[in-house]
Design goal:
This protein is of the alpha+beta class. It is built from 4 helices and 8 strands, in the order H-E-H-H-E-E-E-E-E-E-H-E. The strands form 2 sheets. It has a 4-stranded antiparallel sheet with strand order 1-2-3-4. A 4-stranded mixed sheet has the order 7-6-5-8, covered by helices on one side. The longest helix has 36 residues. The relative contact order is 0.13.
Length: 175
């Protein structure tokens, strides 16, 4: 086997789960610290983990670097589809960064509502009495209200407080 085959067949499939495991471990440790800070607060903010921000920034950096290298050092092998793919992947990184910075949920322990801000800067004031049910999906909590369905990342910082408030207000869990 050549060095390239070793890299593509053994090393990369081994490194990807290790790197993802490290990222999730960092997220869990960060979330644990935030839970301890928020345990006695009246106003709790649920945000996406900072690790998502870094993943988005790295993705933007990588694909913009690829685009710059393809532009400055062309070798005639780049097709239009590769350009489009790299630009789209860079925009996905931008979307991740924007969602990490904009999306949040604000919970108030003594109020009968919470506030959710979504990506296009739309803010919703949601009464717990308007919440019909919730269910867990793959890494998300799907909260159904009378008007809209909200998807909440289960790795979000202070997510546990949202779940506790849903249980406290007797919102039913569905399968």
């Amino acid at each position: 086997m050549s060095k390239m085959q070793i890299l593509t067949r053994i090393l990369i499939p081994t490194l990807v789960p290790i790197i993802l495991g490290l990222i999730l471990s960092i997220i869990d440790k960060s979330n644990d610290k935030e839970i301890v800070k928020s345990i006695t607060k009246e106003h709790i903010v649920i945000r996406l983990p900072k690790a998502y921000l870094w993943v988005g920034c790295l993705e933007i950096s990588f694909f913009v670097t690829c685009i710059v290298l393809m532009t400055w050092f062309p070798n005639g092998t780049a097709t239009a589809w590769e350009w489009i793919l790299f630009v789209l992947l860079a925009f996905i990184g931008v979307a991740i960064v924007l969602k990490t910075q904009i999306w949040k949920i604000e919970i108030f322990r003594s109020k009968n509502y919470f506030i959710c801000r979504t990506l296009p800067y739309k803010t919703y004031r949601i009464l717990y009495s308007d919440c019909m049910s919730y269910r867990f999906g793959a890494n998300t909590l799907e909260l159904r209200t009378k008007e809209k369905t909200f998807h909440i990342d289960t790795h979000a910082t202070n997510f546990e407080f949202m779940l506790a408030m849903l249980i406290q207000h007797k919102i039913r869990e569905t399968n």
